[in-house]
Amino acid sequence: MKTTHVLFTATLAFSLSQITGCGGDGSASEPLLAGPETNQSIVHAPFFIHDANGQAPTDPTTPLFEARKGNPITAPTDTS
């Protein structure tokens, strides 16, 4: 029983040292990103919106509606 516990503890310690990067060569590497990778390109994905006729909007001034519930989609208003 004690041998099993010691083996488990040694395996756990080794696994944690590999995950946290202990025992490396000491050189600095790039830090891991905490969030998703982003870029500056815009991707248009009108999956859940449509115009008043139920079609995909083609003009930037077209009023938009949710495809599922039909609720209007409004832009924020400038309060300044």
Strand proportion: 5-15%
Task: Average the pLDDT over all residues and give the rounded result.
Answer: 74
Sequence of strands across the biggest β-sheet: 1-2-3
Largest sheet, in brief, is:
3 strands, antiparallel
**Rg on CA atoms, Å:** 27 Å
Supply the number of helical segments. Answer: 1
Structural class: alpha+beta
Describe this structure in words.
The chain has 80 residues and is α+β, with helices and mostly antiparallel strands. It has one helix and three strands. The protein has one helix spanning 2-20, and strands at 49-50, 64-66, 72-73. The chain has a three-stranded antiparallel sheet, with no helix packed on it.
Relevant terms:
1 helix; 80 residues; 3 strands; alpha+beta; 3-stranded antiparallel beta sheet
Topology:
Elements: H1 2-20, E1 49-50, E2 64-66, E3 72-73
Antiparallel strand pairs: 1-2, 2-3
Summarize the structure.
The chain has one helix spanning 2-20, and strands at residues 49-50, 64-66, 72-73. The protein is an alpha+beta fold and 80 residues long.
